[in-house]
Amino acid sequence: MPSKSQPAQTSARTKNRAPTRIQQKNRAAILGAALDVFSAQGFRGATIDQIATSAGLSKPNLLYYFPSKEAIHNTLLAGLLDTWLDPLRAMNPAGDPLQEILAYVHRKLQMSRDYPRESRLFANEIVQGAPRIHDALSTDLKELVDEKAALISSWIADGKLAPVHPYHLIFSIWSLTQHYADFDVQIRAVMNTQDPFDDAPEFIDTLYRRLLSPP
Amino acid sequence: MPSKSQPAQTSARTKNRAPTRIQQKNRAAILGAALDVFSAQGFRGATIDQIATSAGLSKPNLLYYFPSKEAIHNTLLAGLLDTWLDPLRAMNPAGDPLQEILAYVHRKLQMSRDYPRESRLFANEIVQGAPRIHDALSTDLKELVDEKAALISSWIADGKLAPVHPYHLIFSIWSLTQHYADFDVQIRAVMNTQDPFDDAPEFIDTLYRRLLSPP
DNA sequence: CTTTGATTTGACCAACTGGTCAAACTCACG
DNA sequence: CGTGAGTTTGACCAGTTGGTCAAATCAAAG
B183 touching A, CB under 8 A? Predict the structure, then answer.
């Protein structure tokens, strides 16, 4: 006899079966908890036990849904980069240049406000040398930025925007918007009265209008 | 008999004696290695063994110079915040407003170029909630920023600068300059040909001139 | 109600990590 | 060259951590 029937499954996600209700619920709970923990402690600072407890599961039970700590982290990062680039992808070559860039800035700032944990997860990964997503950066990310930088350059050549270095313009947008999520603690320590996000959109809007308005 | 003579010393840095040549050399080597490791891995990601090996010492030998991993980290952070704020302290109320701010921006950018490890050490600490320096942020840092924000406000009131929110102006400077150190990997992944620092000063200079030049 | 696969868990393990300690070694100086 | 303070280390320890496993429990289709 060549083989016995299927050996007992030792993990979720069997071959091609649709995920059960329980699988969906638990995987979502794990990813949510993992986002909390990874974004606050970094990859090495996080422990499986923390994530499991925070998700309301035991450690072995968590490992029934994901094969390893790294697998959870990878799952989060994989979804993240794509989401993160959506605002830039949405920049429309047919729109009004200044308005397109301001709209991009607003979308990006809104993401920092709505998804600060994701922003910090990303920041942790990059600051520590992007060991797990370096490839995606130099392929997917670079490709998209090259494309949009070319678009900005053409807008400048047409006299629709004041001349600036297009790559550094994009970096500045990332930097300014993500700063409000990543360095939140620092900003709040300095501005301890009001929510920093209140005035940020107006400031950043002014900044890019003055920088980019054509002469 | 109340006490025997001095018990055998179990750590360096005896009472008030001046540090020996060996102590100076080894403490410096440890702090240098620790800066490498902490800035690249974060506090929890770093191990005493890594730091010791990188400093050319054995683990127990390292612990002869510093009582714990946390003590090394604290020593680094303590020196850091002060150095980090020097460029802002140097902003001169008697100088020309626009030039003073541009000079501040340049000093800050230069620090990111010269001390990227320090910048990343700081970024790691803040992104993860500043557990070890939160107090210093809401006292020393806040005090200095309040002072300089008031100065900027007065410059604006005098019509020497275009009106902007002074706190967000300062945040934007931190954000833009430190971004080049903290997100170095990402920037290099996108601009794989040239050194990102080459064009950054000119871009940032232009940005703040257009933002702040009085009408 | 039974069966079968999905889910959960307690017990366990090996590797790693921060830290200790007594003994050994080195060095400067009288 | 002897001596005591300063320096170094191998052996060790306890707590943590990522991950395994067999057995127990649960859910739902028949």
Answer: yes
The integer distance in angstroms from the CA atom of A47 to the C1' atom of D16 is 10
- B1-67 and B69-215 agree in CATH topology: no
**What pLDDT is stored for residue A55 in this prediction?**
98
Closest chain A C-alpha to B26 CA, distance in angstroms: 26
pLDDT of residue A10: 61
Which residues of chain A does B186 touch, with a Cβ-Cβ cutoff of 8 Å? 126, 130, 137, 141
**What is the total residue count of chain B?**
215
Whether B162 contacts chain A with CB within 8 A: yes
Q: Which of A174, A191, A211 sits opposite B210 (nearest CB)?
A: A211
CATH fourth-level superfamily of A1-67 = Homeodomain-like (1.10.10.60)
- Mean pLDDT value across residues A170-185: 98
Mean pLDDT in residue range B73-82: 95
Report the distance separating Cα B187 and Cα B185, nearest Å. 6
Answer for A70: CB within 7 Å of strand D.
yes
Note the Cα A36 to chain centre separation in Å. 13
Task: Tell me: pLDDT of B211 over 80.
Answer: yes
Confidence of residue B168 (pLDDT cuts 50, 70, 90): very high
Domain ranges of chain B: 1-67, 69-215
The whole-angstrom distance between residue B37's C-alpha and the CA centroid of its chain comes to 15
So what's the architecture of A69-215 in CATH?
A: Orthogonal Bundle (1.10)
Whether the CB of B53 is less than 7 Å away from nucleic strand D comes out as no
- The complex's ipTM works out to 0.92
CA of B132 to C1' of C22 (A): 35
Q: What does pTM read for this prediction?
A: 0.93
